[in-house]
Automatic annotation (TrEMBL):
Organism of provenance: Kwoniella heveanensis BCC8398
CDD domains on file: CYCLIN_CCNC_rpt1
Residue stretches spanning the membrane: 274-295
Residue stretches of biased makeup (Low complexity): 372-396
Tagged with keyword Membrane: yes
Protein name as catalogued: Cyclin C
Length: 464
């Protein structure tokens, strides 16, 4: 396990690009529209959330399962696998990885309950099928199971938790005094050597006066802006402020922290965890939270007595004054500007998160999301009779108009239709009018045109 994100498998192997994600979903896009596919991933994340809650899992294992699910479908297609079996296997593996294991029979039984709520009959109820799927999942994940979530980065950014606790034995003021003392001693030693060298007569073969002047010029360039050796004033400020102690930052409202946390929970219904590092996602959530609170309050960064921040604004101001540093930022704009983050990347992540909510609202309205009775009534047969042509129209068309209703029950029907149509195309590629190149599944998928796919297990019928 890597303690550094930059040397971890998450950073080295699982931060991909938008074209790579689009290429991985080309097969599914033949049987659904981009909006439908986007809603399907929201639907699967909702199922993972419900299954995790029934298994009494914390948010971290649930978030890990969501990331495993999206990583798996970078190498596979929904129409060539059983996504319900895959998401149950993701929850099962994520619970083990996060050290909160659950029994495989409990996962199967609770998954049956969750899927029956959505009238899904496509899940195999045998524990051995889930155990077999676990090995295929681990193989496609390349056994890279360590995931860095943005929750801890959010706590570091908002000063609720030190980023490097126990790593530095000295405080920021003591460390600064020690470094300045060493720099003064080095400068004094260098001046003494230059003074002694100036009183000695030149020896035969020694450097000339011009060479000595050039060497002195080079040595002067090595000095910082304040005359110290090897470190300029901006570098010293970045070093002191980048220790991760939580000092020297503005006092952030608890409401901003809570909204940011809720936004991070929602990001697991998007692709941002495949595109951006966790600290960028955390900063994006903080930016959105600042925007939301500024619309509701005149002061988005007001001080509250119930704040859980480690260092108060008064302590940060006194520490910065002792270090001859500027005071902590007084506004959200100054706070965000203090981070060395590429702004186009940050705003691209913000846009990806913001785009989730209108699509999510049309797919599953908030009233249904927070009221299970209304959702059950909406999916009941009596409600289905009021729309006699809706199901038939969905089964008769591959692409639907954006204004047409597409909810969880339509998503479940679309998954079954995608799998059935894909199996027909794989069994009769010439009759389906597809080229041989496009009818083949992507490399690393669980499906294979030479052996076919078992729709109940989501795996190859014959594996060489």
């Amino acid at each position: 396990m890597s303690s550094s994100f930059w040397s971890s498998s998450h950073c080295r192997y699982w931060l991909t690009t938008r074209p790579a994600i689009l290429a991985a979903r080309q097969t599914d896009l033949r049987y659904s529209t981009p909006k439908q596919l986007y809603c399907l991933y929201i639907f699967f994340a909702q199922l993972i959330q419900k299954l995790g809650k029934r298994l009494l899992l914390r948010q971290i294992p649930i978030a890990t399962a969501c990331v495993f699910f999206r990583r798996f479908y970078l190498k596979n297609s929904i129409c060539e696998t059983n996504p319900y079996l895959v998401l149950a296997a993701c929850v099962f593996v994520a619970a083990k990885v996060e050290e909160t294991p659950v029994h495989i029979k409990s996962v199967v039984s609770e998954a049956k309950v969750v899927f029956n709520e959505h009238n899904i009959k496509f899940f195999p109820a045998e524990p051995n099928r889930l155990g077999e799927m676990e090995f295929y999942l681990l193989e496609d994940l390349a056994f890279h199971l360590v995931i860095f979530h943005p929750y801890r980065a959010l706590l570091h950014i908002t000063g609720r938790e030190p980023a490097d606790s126990g790593k530095f034995p000295l405080s920021r003021v003591d460390e600064d005094l020690a470094i300045r003392r060493k720099e003064a001693e080095a400068k004094k030693k260098r001046d003494d050597e230059a003074r002694r060298a100036s009183h000695l007569p030149p020896r035969p073969g020694s450097v000339s006066v011009a060479q000595q002047s050039a060497a002195a010029t080079v040595a002067a360039k090595d000095l910082g802006e304040d005359g110290t050796l090897g470190e300029s004033e901006p570098e010293r400020i970045r070093r002191l402020m980048g220790r991760g102690s939580g000092e020297g930052i503005m006092e952030i409202d608890e409401g901003v922290l809570q909204i940011s946390w809720f936004i991070l929970n929602d990001t697991y219904r998007t692709d941002v965890h495949l595109l951006y590092p966790p600290y960028v996602i955390a900063l994006s959530a903080v930016y959105i939270a600042f925007c939301l609170t500024s619309m509701n309050n005149n002061s988005a960064s007001r001080t509250r007595t119930s704040s859980s921040q480690l260092h108060t604004l008064a302590n940060s101001m006194s520490t910065n004054e002792a270090l001859s540093l500027p005071p902590p930022p007084a506004s959200a704009a100054e706070f965000l500007a203090g981070f060395q983050v590429n702004l186009p990347i940050l705003f691209a992540c913000v846009q990806d998160i913001v785009c989730l909510y209108p699509v999510w609202e049309t797919f599953e309205p908030t009233s249904m999301r927070h009221n299970p009775a209304a959702a059950a009534a909406h999916a009941s047969p009596a409600h289905a009779q009021t729309h006699p042509n809706g199901q038939q129209q969905q089964q008769g068309k591959t692409s639907k108009d954006n204004t047409e209703k597409f909810g969880p029950e339509e998503a479940a029907a679309l998954v079954r239709r995608m799998i059935e149509e894909r199996m027909v195309d794989m069994g009769h590629p010439n009759n389906a009018g597809k080229s041989d190149k496009r009818s083949n599944p992507p490399t690393g998928s669980l499906g294979n045109t030479s052996h076919g796919v078992d729709p109940l297990t989501g795996r190859k019928r014959a594996r060489r």
